[in-house]
Amino acid sequence: MQHFETLFADCTDFIGRHMPLGGEGAPWVYMAYFDALSDRDLFDLSVVRHMFEMDWAALSPSEKSADLLTTMKNRGLATADFSEADNMEDVLYFVMAGDTALFVEGCDKAIIVATRGFPNRGIGAAETEIVVQGSQEAFNEVLRFNTALIRRRVRDTGLKVKQSKLGKRSITDIALMYIEGIVRPEVLAEVERRLESIDVDGLMDSGCVEQFIEESWLSPFPQVQLTERPDKAAASILEGRIAIIVDNSPFVMLVPVSLNCFFQSSDDYYSRWQVMSITRVLRFGGAFLAVALPAIYLAVALYHPSMIPLLMLEKLAEASRAVPFPALMEIILLDAAFELLREAGIRLRSASGGTIGIVGGLIIGQAAVEAGLVSPIVVIIVAITGIATFAIPNVSLVYGFRLVKYFLLIMAAALGFIGLWAGLLIVLIHLASMRSFGFPYLLPFAAGEMNGGEGWKDAVIRAPLRWMRRRPFYARKEERTRLLSSQPRLKD
Q1: Which residues of 119-149 are buried (b: 16+ CB within 10 A; e: fewer)?
Q2: Which of 23, 220, 358, 394 could form a disulfide with 262, with the two C-beta atoms 3.0–4.6 Å apart?
């Protein structure tokens, strides 16, 4: 009691109560928990009520002479969800996590009653990974809810949940979910090693963990896939990947990962393969436009104007004659304005953010053209580039493409098409040199033969599900087969 009162002095949300264990002559019990972190109604009904109803004088001599902890568990608890702790460090962890600790007089162990009932926003709809067809559920900030959402979809006894803690002061819960027998043991061991090497005061979100475990931390491209969709996490686990769940974060990390994973959406597999194959081709085309379109325009306008039809060239020259800035400065200024509008739309309320983005873009674009600050063609180029970024289903990849876009702009402004191709080659070499937990980042576009070419069935074109018989290369070799028969059974 003195230890708790000293540790949590000036903590008005800490509750510590000292009371007898049922009647006169009974030993005393000390209860410790935090208000609002614990479910008080559950604790009152399952513990406090039964403790008051216990009559110590009515107990048999054998029960009185037995271990007090055993008597307390048998007669004073109306819940099956409890455990024991024999050191103060574990007790403090459980109490600060929302559980309730019971100390019985004369016992050298504490009873930990599971009473976690901290406020949460429940299971909502996905906001960053919206799909037309498929589940609308999304992860939330409670780790146990997130593990339950995945286990609800993968009812396999091999699905394991390995939990640990990170952060000296935050003591953040973190869980690894994988299917034993499908996941590669060496990948699992590497993930655990990287997590154990994190030595930091606190971790507030899964994005912090992502930055600590990625290999090429100087690269603008993400090496860990973040998702808020339980169905995507469950599907990835079935492929042999590992889900890393961080408490207090609504995003789950999936490893290993390749560049192709960021172009895949959940509803790619819920709709017909012809339609979704065309959609995926559009995504790759949009990614190329988002990265290279401004640089292509700059290279053509500055170094290769002969590639433009004469009639169109005259109009471009007439529109650009009144612009006081060079073409590179035009694109950078207008693109910066577009990024500001996008950032403002994110920070504002969802009801008004989209309206401000559209209206602001129209007003700024028209005013800039009329004022002679930019030419109309630059407005079109920047607008197409911005629209193309929204076709990419992963936000982390979009951020990387934005940085690469400026690099290609500078290369094209310096050397024209030679600089553009050199910049693209540098980016390609960088991507080819990257690895995610030992796997090439460009799978299946590079080293695709390692899995017999099966990766191409889920690359640019999404093949019919009947043809996708094998798991990706992430899974163990002896567990690659996931579809035994693809022929429908005919009724007699």
Answers
A1: eeeebeebeebebeebbebbbbbbbebbbeb
A2: 394
